[in-house]
Amino acid sequence: MGTHPIFVIIGAGLTGAKAAQTLREEGFDGRIVLIGAEPDRPYERPPLSKGYLTGTDDLASLYVHDQSWYAEHAVELLLGRRVRAVDRVAHQIELEGGDRLDYSKLLIATGALPRRLTLPGADLDGVHHLRTVQDSARLREAIRGGGRVVVVGAGWIGLETAAAARGYGCHVTIIEPQAAPLHAALGPEMGSFFADVHRRHGVDLHLGRGVTELRGTGQVRAVVTDAGDEIPADTVIVGIGTRPYTELAEQAGLAVDNGILVDEYLRTTDPDIFAAGDVANVFHPRYGAWIRVEHWANALHGGPAAARGMLGHDVVEDRIPYFFTDQYEIGMEYAGSFTPGGYDTFITRGDLDAAAFTAFWLSDGRIVAGMHVNQWDTGIAPIQQLIRAGRPVDPARLANTSVPLADAVTHPPSPSASPAGIVR
Questions:
Q1: Mean of the pLDDT values across residues 332-357?
Q2: pTM
Q3: pLDDT for residue 37 is more than 70
Q4: Which residues of 217-233 are buried (b: 16+ CB within 10 A; e: fewer)?
Q5: pLDDT band at residue 356, thresholds of 50, 70 and 90?
Q6: HEC readout, the chain
Q7: What is the chain's alpha carbon radius of gyration, rounded to the nearest angstrom?
Q8: What is the pLDDT of residues 204-239, one digit of tens each?
Q9: pLDDT grade, residue 291 (50/70/90)?
Q10: What domains lie within the chain, and their CATH numbers?
């Protein structure tokens, strides 16, 4: 292998690109090889279901760096190449085609893949999944002329693509097996809020329903629900979640459980291999648990954190998970984490009807997650500060818009009172 260090990054997305950038910024002067299966240089994915899909963002705005940046910083880009295997003993990776490449340190940032329907008609033309910029461009072409769109799944991708399709004048139907959209992510209270938002914009929601079949001859023409309803469709968007792309880690014998298991420094069970981004299940000291986050901020910050770990810097990755969405007139930012049923009190502060409010999820009197809708004067920072503080809050003061948020932690919770805006 020689004595000159070679850092290899598998996955040329935002995580990988930011890791390469940080390595150079931190003074690493060895060889950096950034490998991507897609033909495009690293780009950001959130616009694929937001601005790029709606046509407000152009392709150039998606890229993490200008094309010239990679040569200027001596980052070797291998695009359109897949890694077939990781040889931990030899400290090598094997590319499809048989080429092998040495590594001193390796970062796996392979992301996640969309889950696919496994039912009759799932392979018909007109059925779309959203992962790459090419996927988004094809979907935009399919919906920009209007037509009938059925969205399977009311998670973030499903809701954002439904909003985009309505913006193009499509008739949109959403089918979701849970009783409310975003049930696992936000619980029933905020799930109901987003359901109402979409209904107000003309979307038909079939909640508590699954899909049994897609019908058509060559091209999809209808979606059949488990209630027997046949819903006409020119385009079907599948948004039923993702799975972490862990095949390389599994083949290499690394610990995998809902992603590649890594510690708070993003190290895998092999000290020379790191993982970050959607594929990594990270031990979070704040929560005392492994958490896998599939959102933009995790990629943005996880890549640099992994780079510092590869350089031997003991910098703990303990940022509070963050997410944002844009749907119609709704702009939302969310911070925190909880598992389904992981809160006992839900509090809103502000005006839900006017879509201008803040919401909090509490467990044992402490805030575990919070979000704001269209509260851009304050934004997400005060919510993150309350979560980091980890102190008990007074629900009544938290719900009272006349009380500054920071003052909500100055009094212990009062279990006897449940004023307006508080759901126990």
A1: 93
A2: 0.91
A3: yes
A4: eeebbbbbbeeeeebeb
A5: very high
A6: CCCCCEEEEECCCHHHHHHHHHHHHCCCCCEEEEEECCCCCCECCHHHCCHHHHCCCCHHHHECCCHHHHHHCCEEEEECCCEEEEECCCCEEEECCCCEEECCEEEECCCEEECCCCCCCCCCECEECCCCHHHHHHHHHHHCCCCEEEEECCCHHHHHHHHHHHHCCCEEEEEECCCCCCHHHHHHHHHHHHHHHHHHCCCEEEECCCEEEEEEECEEEEEEECCCCEEECCEEEECCCEEECCHHHHHCCCCECCCEEECCCCECCCCCEEECHHHEEEEECCCCEEECCCCHHHHHHHHHHHHHHHCCCCCCCCCCCEEEEEECCEEEEEEECCCCCCCCEEEEEEECCCCEEEEEEEECCEEEEEEEECCCCCCCHHHHHHHHHCCCCCHHHHHCCCCCHHHHHCCCCCCCCCCCCEEC
A7: 23
A8: 999 999 999 999 999 999 999 999 999 999 999 999
A9: confident
A10: 6-113+243-310 (3.50.50.60), 116-240 (3.50.50.60), 329-423 (3.30.390.30)
